Amino acid sequence: MPDRLPNPNAVGSEPGPISLRTLDFAAGTMFPPQRAPWGKLLFPVSGVADFTIAGKRYVSPPAYAIWIPPEVLHDSRTPHATRYASCYIRRDLCHGLPEIPSTLSLSPLIRAIVADFAARDVTYPTTAVDERLSLVLLDQLRLAPRHESFLPSSDDPLLSPVLSALRSAPGDRRSLAEWARAVNTTERTLSRRCRATLGLSFHAWRQRLKLVTALSLLEAGQPVKLVAHELGYSTTSAFISMFHQLTGMSPARMVSGREGP
Length: 261
Prior knowledge:
Blueprint: E1 18-25, E2 29-34, E3 39-46, E4 49-53, E5 56-60, E6 64-68, E7 74-78, E8 82-89, E9 102-105, H1 108-119, H2 128-143, E10 146-147, H3 159-168, H4 176-182, H5 187-198, H6 202-219, H7 224-230, H8 236-247, H9 251-256
Helix pairs in contact: 1-2, 4-5, 7-8
């Protein structure tokens, strides 16, 4: 996302301690490779964005933010129309935040603070109240659960072909035991390699894959019932439950661009 924010105290300078903004981006918006001397926290209010950070691909769905430390090369794109929030943090305030690019789980409080600043069109906290609120935001970000990537990949010779097959057909309902037989190993071995190389269980990884796929299908205009069927859910309500569990909002609310509780 763009590096510089309007700063009422020093227009054109680097963002002062914390700068925020929430903007709408059209489908197909591309941001070329760039690096900045400050940290960036980036997350969609609705929609999804793709990043390449230090040569690695990251996906950013709602309720999960991308953290980019200072001076790390990155580019991004929005495959579909996206409403995106950006928080820029001065280098000396980045202590306690990850030293490597990471995915952060966003608490309702983090999203509420960012939404409040956006609703009041505050890009740079200048009042004592807003400055205190921005410090709460920083504290919450330091406490946020961290993940190497929302949808990690693996080059493990047993696991990689399973993940590739699921990426091509995320609605495939085969169990872990069935996948293990397909690659001539045991369920226990495949489960152990999932946790060791992905940091997630097979079930959790597959849920995340379905969420990322669902976001793209919903943004393309497919109805919720059809998306649920395509992703292998026996009922629409089961799909909606998964979606709400991972994003904190319903599919319909995400598409409308309104934040859910």
